[in-house]
Design goal:
Helices cover 37% and strands 19% of the residues. It contains ten helices and 14 strands. The strands form four sheets. It has a seven-stranded parallel beta sheet with strand order 3-2-1-4-5-6-11, sandwiched between helices. The protein has a three-stranded mixed beta sheet with strand order 12-9-14. The chain has a two-stranded parallel sheet with strand order 7-10. The longest helix is centred in the first third of the chain and has 22 residues, at 83-104. The radius of gyration is 19 Å and the shape is globular. The chain starts with a strand and ends in a 10-residue tail after the last helix.
């Protein structure tokens, strides 16, 4: 059996990776503060990724065949406010890990972000020149470039906005919407911010597909269709049959934000589809999710 080391396993995507493991692979998940966020029965390791010696010792002891590097400060506002702190994990630790994987000939799959694009095109392929407009995007692009230079055989995955079942310590924006509707308050969503929403389960499937194919290079990973956050909110309300839920459309310009949010980040999936990955429409993802989660009291389950 091969071994996969997953950094950031207590995060939203890490939880889904450990929840839907690839047959034939033993998974060891790392965490720093939130061990309770590791999916049950997953092997785990407390690891400070900003300490090079700790990373090296862990790779030497575990001897993984592959690493999914998911750990990051992903809040765009937080990165904007604390660039030096977040860069130590998002950029420096990623470069150190790539160096050690290159030295030990370990397959590395790194999760980057759609935020490396500037949001000024109708859709983006991997051939488009990155031009991030916020600190988080700049950090992810810097990490991409370090990893690409140090370990050309790595796979770099630019992931879309995620939604899905919540872990004990990490949830998506969808949970906040459902809780808001539960109190019969309205949800506010941007009508002029376009994204290619992707479920945590599908994101895990895409990463495992790249691992199985031993793929290298840069890949977009997103859902089948792009839509505004407002349209996604209406779709979620319809699928969950929350007839009392209200959605208020707003423009990005109406809300003061710490970090710039690109208006259009519709991703082209053709390259990763060529490896065998099949993206799903958010409608079907939400229908599947509805069967998994507990609906708030008072709402229909039919």
């Amino acid at each position: 059996m091969k071994t996969l080391l997953v950094t950031g396993a207590s995060g939203f995507l890490g939880w889904h990776i450990c929840r839907y493991p690839l047959p034939g692979w033993r998974i060891i998940g790392t965490h720093w503060q939130n061990r309770e966020g590791i999916f049950p029965k997953t092997e785990y390791l407390k690891l400070d990724l900003t300490e090079k010696d700790f990373i090296w010792k862990s790779l030497k002891d575990i001897r993984p065949d592959a690493v999914f590097h998911l750990a990051a400060y992903s809040g765009t506002g937080y990165c904007e406010e604390f660039p030096e702190k977040t860069r130590r994990l998002n950029v420096d630790a990623s470069a150190h890990l790539a160096e050690m994987c290159a030295d030990r000939k370990i397959k590395l799959i790194f999760t980057s972000s759609e935020q490396v694009y500037d949001g000024q095109k109708s859709h983006y392929t991997e051939e488009d020149t990155p031009s991030p407009k916020n600190e988080y995007g700049r950090q992810k692009l810097a990490a991409e470039r370090f990893i690409g230079e140090i370990l050309p055989a790595s796979a770099i995955v630019r992931i879309a906005v995620l939604f899905g079942q919540a872990s004990p310590v990490a949830r998506s924006f969808l949970q906040q919407w459902l809780e808001t509707w539960q109190t019969f308050l309205p949800v506010t969503a941007f009508h002029d911010e376009i994204r290619s929403f992707l479920s945590g389960r599908s994101a895990a499937a895409g990463l495992f597909q790249l691992l199985q194919q031993d793929a290298s290079g840069i890949f977009n990973l997103s859902g089948e269709a792009s839509m505004s956050r407002y349209e996604f909110a209406l779709l979620a309300r319809e699928i969950f049959e929350l007839t009392e839920g209200k959605v208020i459309p707003k423009s990005q310009q109406e809300i003061e934000m710490t970090a710039y949010r690109p208006p259009v980040l519709a991703l082209d999936n053709q390259k990763i589809m060529d490896t065998g990955f099949q993206p799903s429409h958010p409608k079907y993802e939400l229908k599947a999710l509805k069967k998994e989660i507990f609906l708030p009291p008072g709402f229909s389950e039919n």
